[in-house]
Write the structure tokens for this entry.
Amino acid sequence: MSDITKQSLSELIKNIKEKKLSSTEVTKAFVERSEKSKELNAYVTEDFSAAIDKAKKFDENPNLDLKLPGIPMAVKDLFCTKNIKTTAGSKILNNFIPTYESTVTQNIWNEGAILLGKLNCDEFAMGSSNETSFFGCVQNPIDKDLVPGGSSGGSSSAVAAQLTPITIGTDTGGSIRQPASFTGIVGLKPTYGSCSRYGIVAFASSLDQAGPMAQNVRDCALLHEVISSYDEKDSTSIDFKRNNYVKELTNNIKGKKIGIPKEYRVNGMPKEIEDLWKKGIDYVKDCGAEIIDISLPHTNYALPTYYIVAPAEASSNLARYDGVKYGFRADGENLIDMYEKTRSEGFGAEVQRRIMIGTYVLSSGYYDAYYLKAQKVRKLIKNDFDEAYKKVDAILTPSTPSSAFKIGEKTNDPVSMYLNDIFTVPVNLAGLPGISIPAGHDAKGYPLGLQIIGKAFDEQNLLNIAYAMEEKINFKNKITDWWIK
Amino acid sequence: MSKDKSEYLINRKDNQYEVVIGLEVHAQVTSESKLFSTSSTKFGAEPNTQVSLVDAAMPGMLPVINKYCVKQAIKTGIGLKAKINKRSVFDRKNYFYADLPQGYQISQFKDPIVGEGKVILDMPDGQKQVGIERLHLEQDAGKSIHDLDPKNTFIDLNRSGVALMEIVSKPDLRSPDEVNEYIKKLRSIMRYLGTCDGNMQEGSLRADVNVSVRKKGSKEFGTRCEIKNVNSIKFMQMAIEYEANRQVDLIEDGQTIDQETRLFDTKKNETRSMRSKEDAHDYRYFPDPDLLPLEVSDEFINQLQSEIPELPDEKKKRFIDQFKLTSYEANIMVSDIETSNYFEDVVKKSDVKLATNWIIGELFAALNEKNLEITDSPISAGNLSKLINLIKDGTISGKIAKTVFEQMMEGDKDPKKIVEEKGLKQESDPKALEALIDKVIDNNRDKTTEYKSGKVKLFGFFVGQVMKVSQGKANPKLVNEILKKKL
């Protein structure tokens, strides 16, 4: 089979289970394609030969009852992986090798998957274009010098370019959904508390959530089923009954009520996005669902709220990178000097900017005006959704206000970069699940995504709506393998 | 310095100053494992051998609350007659230091687990109530070791993450003596509860001391200084005395007092400025997003309430009612749980009055001399009660008992056996005593004549002689009776 890497996860699993393919063949195919795709810069750390060894070992005595039997998989470099360097895209962790495994990745290996390597991302997941990574920009396989989105940019690029059949990212303000939208793939941000944060390098603890990124909704459902678990090691993990998301997947969404929030019609939104949204509404109607206009009145405040809460938490979460215990250390005259040099040289500009914003909003005299007020607004945003969900089962919006932009286009304008997350951050602030599915192309042929936002813990319904829409949309990603010589 | 009754005042020219003291006591929670991790809290281990991934603040590691520490804090709150807050919140206190791996300490700032309570002190001139402002749970930091290398500092994270209770008093204390009583009482309550071992040498109990002064009669508080991290009662008292006098001198000199944090130099016996209010850290407290608010139910609190043992105040009252101890004796007996247990074990089987005297007198003196705690006493409560019974039933005299006691101190021997082996049993047979007395009278004819002619003072001489001849074993009461008859 020459086109192994073109197969979806579900196809690969089927072929392995039916012994039409071995794990070794599959793993080698993805390794080979990854080797040929270095120009994308999707990987920070490759673990290819170990992956092939593991695949061979799997084939010697294959356990085909597992959910991911012998499936190779690269993961975002924000997940701590035992004995494999974990950098979070930062110089400050450039030499950090964890002695432990994150719960989410452990769940994946427990189901038979094999680590291919660690994928590039914005430094500490702070960015929307993967340009803040210490390890350089990642190319979007859609077009040369196009950003793959961020922060899970290595992940979106790797799935879209078929360097890995599927992957996981993390999403604090849109870091799964926005890159999924930019690369024409599916990305799910689960309900806060579904997937354990244990072993994930923290950005903003009250917002961070791991989730699957896949070529299609079914694959996404399968990986979500694997990674979603209650974990005592994470105090914010929630013990609720998880579905068999794949088994219960259905395209029958007749009678479902889908809300369209008027506040998401933002000023200056490109017509292409407006049209895509309209098309999305038609698809939903075609599936037999009902469209209901709703209001989420505090939407306008979501972005400023997010840019207070997330940096505040980050400024504290990143205090541990001080050069004392692990990671990069710069020499200094004394302790304070060492701290200053380590953190000035170890962190990139965007991370430093957010640490400063976060430190500022938590400072005495500013706390009430910024952090406390942001927390109150956050509650109002959540209340908006609670109100809406009295009338609807899910909400449909665009994923992003534009398609992917060129590398360097927004690097000098952080606010314009932050605006990319305008449709995704409210979902994190409210702790809700959201999924981005590819829904069309703009005039340049770049993919565009639609976002479906669900009720808390209602991933099944969310996946079902996405699954039904996917069938109607029948999206085909336009990838030419331009980077392969 | 005037000691008008027990009032502690500082005199300068025409002015008398009162000292106002509030304490923030840091008490290490008695617990096998740390506040947010499963590593051991055992004291004295090799550096960095009790450090989990969480304690070392490895990337992606998350705190998980130790339920046992929560129980301990609530029990302590109950012991302080305090309000238990059913909802409390863990905050992050952010600051950089090499022995603070997370770059923040998890503490409780706005919503502590325990609210207002009180502690009763027994002062020489009566009882005094000291208000408790709050008690909250927090993590301890690691330890920086600066003296092992001329250029480098070493870090030991064994303490990092150990659970502490910070117990904040109201500014109700007025003298070093009250501070002494307060710390002792707090320590005693926590040891009764088993929530803190109170071991000050191992750093399980230390305090930040807030001191201010004001003219006697003034209602306003003066500007306070905080003396950080003082780890013995003696040092607290010395620091307060120094600091109060320093402040009075400043005021008398027409200067003002700067609100600041000071350190007590135990070698020079003085406090020194550490940082001024302007340099105070901005800790940027905010709720720790890794932890949900801590919520406890009424059932949970009630269950803990039912596990609370009899505490010193209640026990003292019972000892006075049940055993007719004086207030002074009762205070001594309840001062720590081990002493009170020992006392109760002894009086279970022997006379209370004698037991009280023997414990407070002989036993404490002997233990003191050997620098032993009551739990290390060579004489078990059982054997002490046997000794007391031997005195009570006249088997041995009080004097002989002291000899037996000394031997018991050498090892926990049964006093009956000592008495038998050494033949120390008291001679109470009238016939045998008569024979002895006859002999003494016989040998001292001249003295007998003198006595009979009116020199009654000589009676004591005869008693002494009888005791000497009997090697102290003669029953003094009977000797008296018989002698009177014979002479």
